[in-house]
Amino acid sequence: MNHPAEHAAIQHARRPFPAALLESLEAHFGDRVSTSEAVREHHGRDESPFDPQLPDAVVFARSTEEVQAIVRLCAQYDVPIIPYGNGSSLEGHLLAVQGGVSIDLSEMNKVISINPEDLTATVEPGISRKQLNEALKDTGLFFPIDPGADASIGGMSATRASGTNAVRYGSMRENVLALTVVLADGRVVRTGTRARKSSAGYDLTRLFVGSEGTLGVITEITVRLYPQPEAISAAVCAFPSMGDAVRAVIETIQMGVPIARVEFVDALAVRAINRHSNLSLRESPMLFFEFHGTEAGVKEQAKTVQDITAENSGTDFDWATRPEDRSRLWNARHSAYFAMLQLKPGCRAVTTDVCVPISRLAECVVETEKDLLGSSLPCPIVGHVGDGNFHVAMLLDPAKPEELEEAERLNRRIVERALKIGGTCTGEHGVGLHKMGFMIDEHGEDGIAVMRSIKQALDPKNLMNPGKIFSFTQ
Amino acid sequence: MNHPAEHAAIQHARRPFPAALLESLEAHFGDRVSTSEAVREHHGRDESPFDPQLPDAVVFARSTEEVQAIVRLCAQYDVPIIPYGNGSSLEGHLLAVQGGVSIDLSEMNKVISINPEDLTATVEPGISRKQLNEALKDTGLFFPIDPGADASIGGMSATRASGTNAVRYGSMRENVLALTVVLADGRVVRTGTRARKSSAGYDLTRLFVGSEGTLGVITEITVRLYPQPEAISAAVCAFPSMGDAVRAVIETIQMGVPIARVEFVDALAVRAINRHSNLSLRESPMLFFEFHGTEAGVKEQAKTVQDITAENSGTDFDWATRPEDRSRLWNARHSAYFAMLQLKPGCRAVTTDVCVPISRLAECVVETEKDLLGSSLPCPIVGHVGDGNFHVAMLLDPAKPEELEEAERLNRRIVERALKIGGTCTGEHGVGLHKMGFMIDEHGEDGIAVMRSIKQALDPKNLMNPGKIFSFTQ
Predict the structure, then answer these.
(1) Does A201 lie at the interface with B, CB-CB under 8 angstroms?
(2) Is the CB of residue A188 less than 8 Å away from at least one CB of chain B?
(3) Any idea of its EC number (chains A, B) (predicted)?
(4) What pLDDT shows up at residue B330?
């Protein structure tokens, strides 16, 4: 399946893959080098609706030194390098559009150290967020960033991921303290320190966070951890309209209530969740809340929020403190993506990811709803409403090019609206292949020129995940 | 006064300042161009103990377009550019080590917009943090970053400043959402959006935050705001030793108590504060706390913290909820710098700024105290202990080079120790001239090489605040 809107972005010539490179890789890595069709197919795709584009080889790396060796060999032969974590990208990050070597980092999944007193952990990039939280279980600490999928910490760093509780804990931007990165020429840099803050020179950590593998391969990450809250409670509340729901959220945030999560789902998404999770929530726009704090604190938060929702026409406020009730509600929200896919059997989803100033969110979603009414595709909406970030899952039949075209048309409309009101084309999924066409509109020619000049400075041969974020010719 | 330790860093040849450039500037800016000795002297110094190094001219700019015009003219003649905010740098950022034009931004001090629903404000760079908070007074919102001095928001962005309540609200790294920057060749880029988060490409905002004027001139800043807390309370508590105080803080943070500020002062600093503010605090290591939240929330926080301090040998826990009592305590802490200077009439201070993982803070301060015992200089200590950041103010007689030498020797020891245990040479003041000698130790040759390659990409003629952060030859 091709993306007509992004056709230009994915028309690349594959680069030569010299037999001598393969021999060298095999000499170094033995059976951890694979050129089998199945393995290459697995590594040349992701959760996006793009057709796979296969790397020439996959190497399973086990250390920074091994990644360095792979990068040096590839650099010697001008062969592209694509880092691979858990494959959960939605935007085509992993497609080998120019061929090359996929470095599979899933065997680099160790926790290197946990420093409970500093509230930090240093991990390898292949560890998933669930694996990390499992390792933290007995420390009283947790890693809060939760993009839904059980993504790798390396991939989450590379895409500047966030998710349902960024409203309280921030995104990977705020939660990565330090990185080890293998650069395009094989140099290894350690960015940042274990100190919580620093003013010592350019912020290289945040330069690599969100660089989507185009500036280097992340091989170690130091992240911030948080104390597990003494108490957690959850609530859901139905609203007659999206506008009412968003106004309730704005007031909640303006009151300084430190909500841990606040998620919006529209009526269609509620229907999907009800079917999938065997629930009977009212099929209307709805907010899911989660509160973290002391016993007294979460009660106070929930009471304040209940009052605010009532003033904004909220109904059916349902407050869950028992872990099993909380889990039931939040598991339902967490399974929303798969629940939505089941609305249209055999479908795939093109998912929008705009993020706008929250003052403009209600109008933006209302206008979006109007667009969707006119569409033939089922398009449920879920949103990280406290951040102004929402996703329209446009469910399409992969056998029907006209449906893809329709989805891309809607996506363009939604992104253009978001940019017009001061937002971004991607709040948390990254650019990959799918958003490249919007980058100049968002950043201006000069903004992209600055990004290109940084790319030129660090990867002049365009070896690191070429063809992603913006077009670049070395 | 010269800094022997940093001599190399400040040995620069002044570049030619062509008469034709001055004529062009005067043609554009009239009497907003000054070459008077007094104005140049004022702009060629800061709060560091360095002797002034005067720019060739000072231009008072009033808009991004004017800054762009100045930068274009300077670029045409290869003349350096140094942005000037409020002059409160402690590290020599403002010294015109190669001559050039100081762009005074103090007339660019407007609030461009306040967006209460989004909790953001967009401001010009010359506005000070107090001016911004004055403008926010009636909105129910505030801008929390508080470095002590009434620094400009532009300067705070350029140095990645923080201060007493970074433990809760973060530093400028977390609180700048978007920037307008005039690049070395006069292009203007707008980085970021008003959305709270984005994954759209390289994080240019955070590249310019902390770049100390070496990559461009910041002319607009969008910052995050916070709701004024419903209730604020403060407390002080004395401890027999720094170790006890730090353990109390670590436990407080690990419990997840959302303290807004927690500041350490040593016995000598308490003596200085007592004298200066006419207080009678116990002259022993002491913590100052501030709690933000609901009425019930701050009571609960204070109670939890009181219990934790008691378990760590804390005494004289004194809790202040009335605004006048809070102000008295915190004004005392805020005036600590000037109070300390009065310990030695006529002195100037060399101030260290290391930041270490908080698990190593107690040991780091205890070792530092041992170093200071052997010194002839009075050296009070204050610290943003929740961040692991502390300042030793080494009070020296500017007429005695041996005292400066002694201060630099101590500073080196303290920085070397901080780096050894995973910390940074500067938590919040920036590198300027003073910390350049530590940059390779902190970031490695390759880390600095990456910074240099970014500088090369964006400012190949080394026009933007040359001679700061790291040595660079175009």
Answers:
(1) yes
(2) yes
(3) 1.1.2.4
(4) 83
Is the model more confident about A326 or about B222?
Answer: B222
Q: Out of A355, A359, A450, whose CB is closest to B189?
A: A450
Average pLDDT over residues B161-188: 96
- From first CA to last CA, the distance across chain B in angstroms is 29
Name the domain count of chain B. Answer: 3
Residue A184 and residue A273 in one domain: no
Q: Output DSSP code: residue A13.
A: P
* Residue A7 predicted with pLDDT over 60: no
A167-195 pLDDT per residue, tens? 999 999 999 999 999 999 999 999 999 99
Q: Are residues B268 and B184 in the same domain?
A: no
Within a domain: B450: no
A174 interfaces chain B, CB cutoff of 8 Å: yes
DSSP string over B113-131: EEETTTTEEEE-TT-BHHH
* pLDDT tens-digit series, residues A362-374: 999 999 999 999 8
Question: Would you call A202 and B451 a contact, using CB atoms and an 8 Å cutoff?
Answer: yes
CA dist A285 to A232, A242, A254, A383, Å?
Answer: 24, 6, 21, 11
Residues of B in contact with A449 (CB under 8 A): 187
B interface test, pick of A188, A197, A443 with most B CB neighbours within 10 Å: A197
Band the pLDDT of B10: cuts 50, 70, 90.
low
Are the C-beta atoms of residues A274 and A329 closer than 8 Å to each other? no
Q: Residue B239 sits in a domain of what CATH number?
A: 3.40.462.10
Kindly report the backbone phi and psi dihedral angles of residue B294, in degrees, each rounded to the nearest multiple of 5, phi listed first. -80, 170
Q: Which residue of A has its CA nearest to B198?
A: A427
- What CATH number did the domain enclosing A42 receive? 3.30.43.10
> What is the domain range of residue A24?
4-106
- Same domain for B157 and B295, yes or no, is no
pLDDT digits (tens, 9 = 90+) for A398-413: 899 999 999 999 999 9
